[in-house]
Amino acid sequence: MDENLSQVISDVSIFTNGRLIHGNLTIGADGRIAEIQETPYTKASTRWLLPGVIDTHVHFREPGLTQKADIESESRAAAAGGVTYVFDMPNVKPTTTTPVALAEKHRLYQQKCLVNYGLWYGITTSNIDEALALFGQPDSPKRDEICGFKVFLGSSTGGMLMNDQQKLRQLFIGTQRVIGIHSESEDIIRRNAEKYRAMFGEQEVPVEYHSKIRDTAACMATTRMAIELACETGAQLHVCHLSTADELDLMGPPNVTGEVCVAHLWFSDEDYRRLGTRIKCNPAIKRIEDREALRRGLTDGRIFSIATDHAPHLLGDKQGGALRAASGMPSIQFSLLAMLELSRQGVLPLSKVVELMCQHPAQRFGLAGRGEIRVGNFADLVLVDSNKTTTVRKENILSKCGWSPFEDTTFSHRICGTWVNGLQVY
């Protein structure tokens, strides 16, 4: 190591081995943590050095939807939020469902992304054989080019619905890659939508009915089916954005992990009156009872990881009601701050924030040397001041869409710096 190229972050509380210690951290010229030196102190530092957040569920909208967001703008927002690794979803234009589209997306990310990245590969009824051959096995020629397979069991932005049970079974049998699912029953959603469309006639169906259209039954039907299939086949299933109390009771099989998103932990259906379509997302924000159950799941072992489903839209796209307004919201810049706020409120300890946002994602997706502050690991780090506040204003929002559902919220912490592979990017 060339000591002239090393960096020292000094006089901080470093989160290592499950606790905060006071000391100095040295980053080597190779971008890895070279030394952690514990030093005596008379009082605890308010500056915490935490592992960088690994967000395994984002929509950066490039290629094809760059009027909403792009790789540069959203990775800049990620870095400002202490996120050092993102996994981007395949529902862009063209969808990431062919080797050609995947190669182009890699090219764009390598040029523009300020943080580490992985790419989900979308599975449809027509590409499954090729996908399994190219990416699905340990000896597949392009295995390392994707982070996992994404399946939309319910329709969402991008039109990638996969509702062929035979093809789904083929996927579950054919790979030990992580299979992420968007879990909502299209049949139940369609029936509910027709019911409320008839009820309101020519009027817009109010956004408050979004959680009645994409209801608990819609989530439970496909989540139960997918978990049963995973248990039968041994597939590595990752249930994305859990949103109901009932789904938590299905968690437990060792090959099944459940993700919850910050929005479902922060908001409830009571917030539709205040925020309207700004919090319209799929699956829907549901009852306060669901939110409280999800919060309990953070500490009782049923929830494995926290992500954002960061999904920017222009405010013009968010006009309309439950059936017309676009679903999705930007959240990555303030996700760690929101979880630290919940920790401050006693919902979960700091150790669980780090475990669910950093350690567990790294473990699930095989990110060696990530997710923990240890000598030899990559220096993916975020410096937080626990004694300085952050108020979300339009002028400090970095997502290209220019708005946030957290506007006017004051968080009790501030992100002061972010390092990716040893380089300070924020």
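(the above was protein one; protein two follows)
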Amino acid sequence: MTDVWALFAAPASGGPDVPGLLLTLAAVLAATKIVGALARRIGQPAVLGELVAGILLGGSVLGVLDPSEPVLKTLAELGVLILLFEVGLETDLKALRRVGAAALTVGTVGILLPFAGGYAVALAFGASTMTALIVASAMTATSIGISARVLGDLGRLKTDEGQIVLGAAVFDDVMGLVILAVVGGIAAGAGLTAVGVVTTAAVAIGFVVGAVVVGAVIARPLMAAVARITVAGTVGVTALVFVFVTAAIAAKVGSAMIIGAFAAGLVLHGTPQRHEIEKWVTSIGHVFVPVFFAMVGAEVDLRAMMSPSALALGAALVVVAVVGKVIAGFAPVWFKGRKLLIGVAMVPRGEVGLIFAQMGVAAGVLGGAEFGAVIAMVVATTFVTPPWLGSIAGAAPSDGGDGDRDSGLSELVSEGAPSAPPKRATQARPKLS
């Protein structure tokens, strides 16, 4: 298949094979949309279809997509930045204050239990300390996009349970990124010391806090000035410039670019132009984000993934991943709402788990059977959540509202994937006289 594909690519002299890259990119975009549409037909988010498309195009099957190709890797990194920017852009810090204590409790337990369990399981299956740390980091994630989409479909996004899930998911992802930054530093040779860990974590958290504080002062006047320019696309381009500059600054100060992109989203959330920015960036995300998911899929070695050891590790990680998040839903003992609903909604790792897995590959400490097991964990937790939530949610509350369920992040990740329909409220039958 690779030889046939090469017939369509004009040979390049001393530079990238542009025709070949264009054909590969065309194949990626077409395959991710087609397989993503098939995933939606069976009630699953498009991200799973895009992941499968990458597996099919990768070296394990067709050999069309090379995950080490520099240009495609750059496009995938842009997709990650856009995805994390969307996460920040949809995070309303003020709205989360009302359920802050419960969300913080759920988020904290939802990090500690899966991290400890994932680390212990990986070590028990013979992984190195560094690999076990990366696996454990991926276990902490919660997919805001998938959780928000499913809760919105069930009419529970604006309930206390829905807001707790969103708050806890944001906390999990921010702290997960901090953990990943620390682990990435260790993998790069920084060494595992208390001072090093604290320093890396402080830089990451401090950057987010500093960006929000500074951004609150400059973002509104900046976007207001830009909005007065009548050239089409100016607001969207300015937002993208803001993301790239913030991500670059984050990398320069010793944090991660994705943390910078997330911080940029937090800053621009409070601007009146948020929905215009979201619409513009989402349209670009439809090109770059599928490339990222396909590149993750192309990294999967099916032979290694289907080995008995990888399957056993994957199954153990799935159990730990599900149990840890469900228990976290019951952590705020004072909360009188539906704790099982909260716990189940925290289960999907989705796009965030894939980001963690890909960063483990980039750091050179995650591959083969362990990488396949992490991918299996991400797929399984994402696959089971929509029907599970639909079966326990019950009738939608009259004041639940689905809010922004068709917002940019949900559209990029789920693209309208139908969830299991909520149970209808049982109507009382009239008594016969």
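Reviewer note on protein two: Residues 78-141+151-284+303-395 form a domain with the Na+/H+ antiporter like fold fold (CATH 1.20.1530.20).
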